[in-house]
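Form 12-C: Joint structure prediction
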Amino acid sequence: MTATREIVTDRREEFAFHDDIVYLAETKRGLSRATVEEISAFKNEPDWMLQYRLRAYEHFLKRPLPTWTDGLDRINFDNIVYYRKPSEREEKSWDDVPDQIKATFERLGIPEAERKFLAGVGAQYDSEVVYHSVKEELTKLGVVFMGTDQALVEYPEIFRKHFGTVVPAEDNKFSALNAAVWSGGSFVYVPKGVEVPLPLQAYFRINGENTGQFERTLIVVDEGAKVHYIEGCTAPIYATESLHVAVVEVVALPGSKVRYTTIQNWSNDVYNLVTKRAHAYANSTVEWIDANTGSRKTVKYPSIYLRGENASADIISVAVAGKGQHQDTGAKAIHLAPNTKSRIVSKSVSKDGGRATYRGQLKVSPGATNVMASVRCDALMLDDISRSDTYPYIDIQEDDTTMTHEATVGKISAEQVFYLMSRGLTENEAQNLIVQGFLEVFTKELPMEYAIEFNRLVKLEMEGSLG
Amino acid sequence: MTLARTPRATTARAVRRAPADLPFVFADRGLVQALAAERDEPGWLRDERLAAFAVFDELAVETNQLYTPYIDLRAADLFTVRPFVRTASASTASGDADADAAVVPTGTSGLIELDEDGVTSIGLSEGARARGVIIETFGAALARDAAGFRAELEGGALLPTTDKLAMLTRAFWSQGVRLSVPDGVSLDEPFVIRWAAGAPDRALLTRTFVRLGKGAKVALVEDLGPSRRPAATAATGGQSLFTGTLEIDLAADAELRVASIQDFGPSQVVLQHRQAAIGAGANLHWALAQLGGRLVRSRVDNRLEGDRSSVEQVEIVFGSDEQLFDLTSYTRHVGRDTTGNILSKGVLLDAARTYLKGMITIDKSAIGTDSFLGEFGMNLSKKTRSVAIPSLEIDQPDCRRAAHSSSVGPIDETQLFYLESRGIPPDEARKFIVLGFLEPVVARMPLEDERERLRDLLEAKWNAGLESAAAA
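Section 2 - Result
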């Protein structure tokens, strides 16, 4: 019990700062064809990328705003700064990162984390990646971990072969927006048979007010290779909205294993609209471990397309929706090949008027024989001003699929709280512990330092409502 | 409006249709006027129809965005259908016991049978008549109690005003049935309402009201099947449309058991709306069997308004050929300590499809709710498709239970093995398992005859499926 109390010291103030930085370059507020051309020119990109961006921009204009989830019409696309460049180039040595930015990430604990146990670290500040490092022995094995912009220059062949193949620009309005103005993000390539023993990690930080962050991450894991990628994100609190529209593409080639972990802790004025999708080829395993505690509104359904025989998908999605927040999250597993397996587990907590929505899809296409699939959604509501929704779509087009789906919604049991209080916990501590236990399916998948960090975030979200 | 739409009638079949495009063109303002004039209806009723038409004209076929990806009306081809407009008037209030005896089967409390031309038989048991029960057509209700009937009908009654197809029926119904059971009347023997339809290129649009007074307890069998007119067949090409409502109002502590068998012909398009307002302490039980039709789109709304009210809904689908069953169920908990138990089961052969959409809504006022939604499917052929969308929208966490569950799987091999090890041939064993899967609805049929008839229908459909599989 003592350990629990130590874990949950409040450090929220430490993330809430922002830097008064002078940007080396930024686009004017709002989005136009000229903005797109300007971003591409800043980056000195090949013409095919400029043309790709412009096509995506046209599609973004044409595509209506989704209306199946509410509140997106509150985003003022004209008031966003789409590109802000804080640093001249991507540094490989921490010492070379500009002092002010370095100070920010040190306050967030990034170099500390690297020293401890990571195989590589990347850090993105507003639009650009400012720092990337990967351990020397991995470099020797041919593992590539760098900013996506840099990869376009250094690995044009792998880049062009896979970029936009998993999430086409035309997939949805926000994937089109990302494709038009993308900047930064991580590029990972793991060669055949290489197992990366420790997690690769990226930190994303929005600093400027009304800033849009549009990072683009592309992970290609070659045959028989293995990697774990972790990302975290923070932003200072402004009274006006910021926009985070990312696209993540994962290509898991035959026999590979990829785990992608996200701890999303944007401040409560960020709209977080992310398209994450993986293609899983024969005998590969893809895992999305996805947690959302921050942002005003998150719309994100990590997806896995099971394209090769015996591929397997595992998605754990957890969400905590507090005051003024709507976590519209979930998962998708699309079975396109025989003998594929998927498991989706979703846990959500809503409180203080927050709304947690699970939206998911499970599809078994014709030809995907002998599929095993399961979906489990549990929701905890801590009060009666909050809301919980569950919208699963299950579409089975084969005759030998085995699919099960279960969902429950409930509140914290008074008996459990009473029991813990009789053991000396305060009511707040008891409820906090029960929520942590409810989310354990997620935390137990994290490296220990992250589990501690995540429990701390949950505790922060719980503060005030129960104390 | 008639003129503007007519060209679409000829081009609609030639061009590629979107899944949510309306499959008919008869519904226009002129037809509303013609209906009201032909039937000599009072001004308020014409206005009621026109109000419904105005809403119908505005709405999209599916207004719930959760479900727009799963709608498909393309199997319906009703561009040449003409609706029946003539009405019939009949009532047990004006009949007598002698006439009744001739038409009311033993074991029932009353009966009304209708087809495209009107009422073919109507009557009440002696017990029901003595207790003040009335079965009547809408025409008779209007003549008997114009003001009371107007109050019931005006504004759309229980039909959801955001549902285009419900508004279609509200605007264009030609036949209506009303069953009213006074306070405290309890009858063990069920009432029977039998609708027959199926004339090619014709549409029959109907409504049914069921009103139970305080503490009343009755059972109702709804029988939907082909008419004696030359039926629409795949060969004639002319499909037939039937739309039907069941608008149920249960006063406090009332109890109603509804059992329905839908066994229309293979060229029938069926649109159903069933709405129930359930008062304090009242209980509603649905046992619904869907077997027939080319395309069936149905919606059930259970409103648990009164404290301690409850609903149990069990629906089975047995689909074959290219049948599509698009079934939506909304259960809304409003009162305290209400209970909902919704179960849908589908067995699919050949290239049959089901879209099972279920929504449980727990309002903030609904403290102490117990709600369960289950959607289960058995795909028995590679071309089948089962879609399940079981959803929850919850504003009150203080509940006994709020859960849903869903599964799709083939016939359980271990069950098959068990039966075969007892000497049952594989085909028989498969039949037992499938019919057993559907048995929960069969067992809830309140009439022995109906129970046996449903068993026979299911078995016949299974055997036909086996033959077609053997032929293929």
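Section 3 - Comments
Confidence is low (pLDDT under 50) at residues 1-12 of chain B. Chain B touches chain A through 37 residues (CB under 8 Å).
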